[in-house]
Specification:
Layout: H1 5-12, E1 19-24, E2 28-33, E3 42-46, E4 50-53, E5 70-72, E6 78-80, E7 83-84, E8 92-93, H2 96-121, H3 133-148, H4 152-160, H5 180-191, H6 197-210, E9 211-215, E10 221-226, E11 234-235, E12 241-246, E13 249-254, E14 263-266, H7 275-286, H8 293-298, H9 304-309, H10 317-334, H11 338-351
Parallel strand pairs: 11-14
Antiparallel strand pairs: 1-2, 2-14, 3-13, 4-10, 5-6, 7-8, 9-10, 12-13
Amino acid sequence: QNAPKMAQLEWQRFFPSTVEVKETKEFGRGVYAREKIPRGTEILRSEPLVHVLETSAVEDYCSCCLVAREVRDQFGRTQRALKKCKKCGFVYYCGKECQTNDWLLHKRECKVLTGVKAIHEQPLWWDKDCRGDDYTAYVRLLIRMQMRTGEGCTNREIDLLCPNNTALEDQYTPHTGIPSRLAIHYLKTKIGMPGTEEELLRLHCKINVNSFGVKDQQVISIGSGIYTGPSFLNHACDPNCAQVFEGRTLILRAIKTIQPGEQLCIAYTHLLATYQQRQAKLWNTYRFHCQCYRCLSECKQDSPYHIMYATTGDISGEKKESMMEEGFSIADKKHKMDDIYVHVLSMSIDHF
């Protein structure tokens, strides 16, 4: 059944008139084309609700606009033109304007970054072999989401993100390998994160489900962000849309021609992963099993997908060689997964 009209209007404000957001019994909330969308079309530009750089990238990019700033000295040598925050000494900015614009979200994390840096510098207490490089970025993202909850309109945006409860509390926290509730308890007791554990757990679940990896111009991951509109898109292992980035701005493009009434989908997992790897990732993070065309095809022993992506344990010996040769021939005529990657890469290059 369709969602109430007021809810649809609220969802629609994040999208252009060429698409609509609606809720169905089969897929829940999703984004659908109102008209034909040609391949390569820029569908949407979205600014992040919150975003952070990975710890390894904080010295190379402005923490506000996510643009790398470099200058050349009189000898032609490249030097970074970024200025460090004098209070925490952790984040960098390209100028006063970006520092001022980011201060609303940075002021709370600025106070606790010393504790977070201690996590970064020492092995995590639950794993002597694991250091908290990316976990530091996760903590910063959680703090910034918490800061947003105090802003009226923005707080409503957070409510629109799924899930609206702590149903995913048995998830494992990214980069830690421990249950979410235990990780939140550690943050609360050891670092002194403000707010109740239930509030932090609710935000944690939303971050796990809705965060996008932010890429630079070379399509290398440099950070994470929460983008309200794009988070409404559902998953498919054979998607018709993909996201590229211009600084911190997410740009959604069609990588196939999308027909009126067709659902817009992106990939939540790595497209080169096996069927088993994708299903495990989707269940562990999002709590659903994908039943898209590609996944259903890979389940069939004689399908081109199964032949192309079968592991040694699935098929062995001469039979595998014979099936691979035949399978690639069939797949070349019917459906080439490589096209997806070529489309995404070529549009990324053309755009920049």
